[in-house]
Amino acid sequence: MNNSIPLIRRASGITLARDNILSITESLSEPLFAVFALWIVAVVQEGQISPIYLFLSIVLFLLLYPGRGKVSLPLSKALQEILFTWVVLSSLLLLFASSTHYIYLFTKETIILWVILTPSLQILGLVALKFIAPFIIRLQGPMKCAVVAGVNEQSIALAMRLNGMNYKTTKIVGFFEDRSLERVAAETDIGVMQRGELDAPILGKIDDMAAYIKRHQTHMIYLSLPMSSHPRVLKLLDDLKDTTVSIYFIPDIFMKDLIQGRMDQIDDIPVVAVCETPFTGLNGMVKRVADFCFALAILILIMPVLVAIAIGVKLSSPGSIIFKQRRYGLDGREILVYKFRSMTVCEDGGQVKQATKNDQRVTKFGAFLRKTSLDELPQFINVLQGRMSVVGPRPHAVSHNEMYRKLIKGYMIRHKVKPGITGWAQINGLRGETETLDKMKSRIDYDLDYLRNWSPKLDMYIVLKTISVVLAGEKNAY
């Protein structure tokens, strides 16, 4: 699972300093070049930039901003990411335009030119940015030196990230730590320091830091001390009042444990979000509008398929066509989820047995529906109702929730968002039966990873990946 995280997480190394000109340029270049390409197409094809193109420009910019940092990546990998992102985004935009008939506002030549020109300009922009990046870095002045108070996993990770960047503006020159090197080694993995992979030695005790900063030109301090060291932190801050150094605090909470962690403020009191839904404010509006439009377009397109499946279910075995089961939705509230009935039973009680391989309860037609995921299609109605999302953690039966919430730490955090028709876990092979606790834990890990790293681009990637998985035939679905 860890191998998948860099694919969806923004490269944050360059953005550690808010005044980094290169970081700001990177975040703007990809969406701006996409907008510029659209304007060129408009002028070439129509001789003007009409209102529809201005509207599309806003949509494109919002979907692509902020651009993921690619300057520090090898050129081949950066090109792959640009092309992949554009294929996903353009495919979904064209699918939406086709289903809503807006596509007929543009000629075939206009669409082809737009699809080809946009990634071409983005690639040219990246090459140009790689060329001028060293000059941009030099514009910001000499390298800034930083020291870290405390040696632990997160402070070492920060130093490795900063010192390993190709276009760095800040360098960690060393650490200050009160514990002995032997004790630090016993409590923290400092192999990178011992092997010389990190050129940042321990410079002294934390009480020595203020004196060191006065003797050496130091621009920043990162405090990576545990919350239990509150008196030490206050004393250190008091000692540093006689310096002009910038001070940053690294919480002693591993970043992998934060769900949408961010700073906020209530009146004049700063607060840190440790566990929060990603769908607040504008993000929530974007998610809901995208869900509604996509679900409506899909239901209109597949209406004949729905009718055919309904007839097939009715003829396959006695019983209702639609199977309704209670699941947990947003904030753990119960919802009714719709599926085409694929079994001879409709279990929704205190004990619900997961479908297993060669399950006798599954009808022949139902097996086909489950294999192809066609039984899930009625859930697009749940999306229109606002009970579900197109992408999100898959909903489990209420009885399964009550069982697993006692066995898996953090299980209920997945309910901070609406359940989805498809999800990050499902496209990574965790679809169907979870016959062991480890498999369910892996599924929950992917669900929480989705919450940490959500973006509209990740949702689009999951939708396209789901289509390819379904077409290939998922072996775990039965």
Model description:
By secondary structure, this protein is α/β, with parallel strands linked by helices. It has 3 domains: 2-139, no CATH class; 144-257, Rossmann fold (3-Layer(aba) Sandwich), CATH 3.40.50; 282-472, no CATH class. Helix content is 50%, strand content 11%. The protein is built from 18 helices and 11 strands. It has helices spanning 5-8, 21-46, 51-64, 75-100, 108-139, 153-163, 181-187, 191-194, 209-215, 230-239, 282-301, 303-316, 364-372, 379-385, 398-407, 424-427, 437-453, 456-472; strands at residues 144-149, 170-176, 202-204, 220-223, 246-249, 262-266, 269-273, 322-328, 334-340, 389-391, 420-422. The strands form 4 sheets. Strands 3-2-1-4-5 form a 5-stranded parallel beta sheet, covered by helices on one side. The longest helix has 32 residues, at 108-139. The model is unreliable at 1-19 (pLDDT under 50).
Topology:
Layout: H1 5-8, H2 21-46, H3 51-64, H4 75-100, H5 108-139, E1 144-149, H6 153-163, E2 170-176, H7 181-187, H8 191-194, E3 202-204, H9 209-215, E4 220-223, H10 230-239, E5 246-249, E6 262-266, E7 269-273, H11 282-301, H12 303-316, E8 322-328, E9 334-340, H13 364-372, H14 379-385, E10 389-391, H15 398-407, E11 420-422, H16 424-427, H17 437-453, H18 456-472
Helix pairs in contact: 2-3, 2-5, 4-5, 4-18, 11-14
